[in-house]
Amino acid sequence: MTTVNIAIEDLENDIKLVKFEGQLDESNVDEKSKLIYSLIESTDKPQMIFDLSGLEYMNSKSIGYLNDWYLKVSDKGGKIVLAAAKENIMDILDVVGMTQILEQFPTLEQAKKAFNE
Amino acid sequence: MAKKKDQITFSISFPASGYFIEVVQNYVGKIIKNYTPFKEDRWVKRFQSVVDELCNNAVEHGSSKNDEVKIIFNINNETVEIIVEDSGTGKKKIKAKELKKMVDQRHKEDLRTNTTIRGRGLPWIVSAWMDKLHFGDRAKGGIRVRVIKYAKNKN
């Protein structure tokens, strides 16, 4: 059975750091996505960094959720950026066009700077 | 795929449940890395994704919970063929022709305006990374999805 852990941390300037570890797939993504929806709903103008450095795998449905979170955050005038994704994660995000939609940075530090500029 | 002299065939059957994703991924990873021309990590992970998407489709449209999903690998020096068969006992019954139509329709859509949770697996991930994608109805019921990747197209 695969697992994924999602940890949320408050950074400066009301930025939420959402750290994913493990793999997002058919066995867990419906349940785990609720945490992200709850975070988006409870924030007026969500400013979020998704730290993907510990994410080993994501399937197409997980990408569907990522797209939906992005749309909901954008509707509220907020922003999601991706940080430190592994090569295979970037590969699959690229093939479904998500890299054209979401800003992504090779490191967490660079992603933090994107909010402070 | 016509059987060649150097061809190896592997197959695995597992109950239609997300519980077995990791087992299947490990199995696919070992086969691709050890027995195919696609030994690079990038391609091993791509094949793992492709099989995962095919199996998720089989579970969603084809096999009822804990009914059988079968994966067959036919491998030679030039080609990797993967077949995923479901049992046709699932709730959302669909014929190969309808599934192909759905996938073709999705493929025409603009990726940037796709707002659905589902619908990126077969039309985008599998279609982009494999050279051929074919759907067929099984005589006993269910769908057989077949993909082929040619070694000459791996870059």
Account of the 3D structure:
With 117 residues, chain A is α/β, with parallel strands linked by helices. In chain A, 40% of the residues lie in helices and 32% in strands. A 5-stranded mixed β-sheet of chain A has the order 1-2-3-4-5, sandwiched between helices. In chain A, α1 runs parallel beside α2. The termini of chain A are far apart. Chain B has one domain: 2-Layer Sandwich (Heat Shock Protein 90). Helix content of chain B is 38%, strand content 24%. In chain B, strands 1-2-3-5-4 form a 5-stranded antiparallel β-sheet. Chain B starts with 7 loop residues before the first strand and ends in a 5-residue tail after the last strand. Classes of the chains: A alpha/beta (117), B alpha+beta (155). Chains A and B meet through α2 and α3 of A and α1, α2 and α4 of B.
The backbone outline of chain A, from C-alpha atoms, is globular
- State the largest interface: A-B, 25 and 29 residues
H/E element string of chain A?
A: EEHEHEHEH
Stretches with pLDDT under 50, minimum 5 residues of chain B: none
Name the structural class of chain A: alpha/beta
How many domains, in number, for the residues of chain B?
1
- Average pLDDT of chain A works out at 94
Number of helices, where a helix is a run of at least 4 consecutive DSSP H or I residues of chain A: 4
Instruction: Report the portion of residues of chain A in β strands.
Output: 25-35%
Helix content of chain B: 25-40%
Measured between the Cα atoms of the first and last residue of chain B, the distance is: 22 Å
State the end-to-end CA separation of chain A.
42 Å
* SS-based class of chain B: alpha+beta
What would you call the shape of chain B? globular
Count up the helices of chain B: 4
